Amino acid sequence: MIAATPQPPYYAVIFTSLRTDIAADYHQTAMRMVELAEQQPGYLGHESARESIGITVSYWQSLEAIKNWKQQTEHLLAQQMGREQWYTHYKTRICLVQRDYGFEKI
Amino acid sequence: MIAATPQPPYYAVIFTSLRTDIAADYHQTAMRMVELAEQQPGYLGHESARESIGITVSYWQSLEAIKNWKQQTEHLLAQQMGREQWYTHYKTRICLVQRDYGFEKI
C-alpha cells in the first residue's frame, strides 16, 4: 500500500537494488526487517516493489531515527548478508521530503 | 538500472501509485513520458518497479527542473489521463537528496 505519511517535512530513505540469484533466507529476512523497522522509533511507513530492479522507500521522522535503524543489530547483520549474498549493486539515498500531494479516486 | 546520479545535493520525485485495470495506452504513455523526461533540462535519471504498487523515482538538478517537467504540455495530458483512467490512488513526494552511498560487487 501507499504509505500514509504525515505532513512534510519528514525523511525518506530510497534503497534501490539489483539482486543476485541467491534466494536463501532473502525473503524471510526482508519480512523480518519490515517487522523490525515498524518497531523502530520514528518509523512512518514504507513502500516496496521489484521488477528488473527493486525499490524500497522507508519514511522516518528524523535523521536520528534513520541512523538508529541503520545501526540496529539485526539490521546490521542483514546489511552484511546483503553485500555478501543477495545484492550485486545497491544505492541508498537519504532524502528530506519537502512537499507531497496525491490523488485518490472516490 | 540504478540511476547514476551525481554527488548530492540533488532532488528526487517519488511517485507511488495503484493502478486501475485499464491498460489502454498506459504502457505506451509511460514509455513516452520517460523519453520526454530524459529530454528535460535538469533530468538526472530515473528508477521504476511495479508489483502490488508501482514506484517511480526520478532525479532532478533543481526544484525549477521538477516544476518545468510537471508543467510540460504532453506530461500534463498524461497526468490527466492518469487521474481519469490509470490510477486509483497515487502520491507524489518532492525530496531533497542530502546524502547517498552504495555498493557494487566487483
From TrEMBL, chains A, B:
Domain ABM: 9-79
GO MF terms, alphabetically ordered: monooxygenase activity
Pfam families per record: ABM (PF03992)
Swiss-Prot/TrEMBL keywords: Monooxygenase, Oxidoreductase
Keyword check for Manganese: no
InterPro entries, sorted: ABM_dom, Dimeric_a/b-barrel, Jasmonate_Hydroxylase-like
PANTHER family recorded: ABM DOMAIN-CONTAINING PROTEIN, BLL5343 PROTEIN
Protein name, UniProt field: Antibiotic biosynthesis monooxygenase
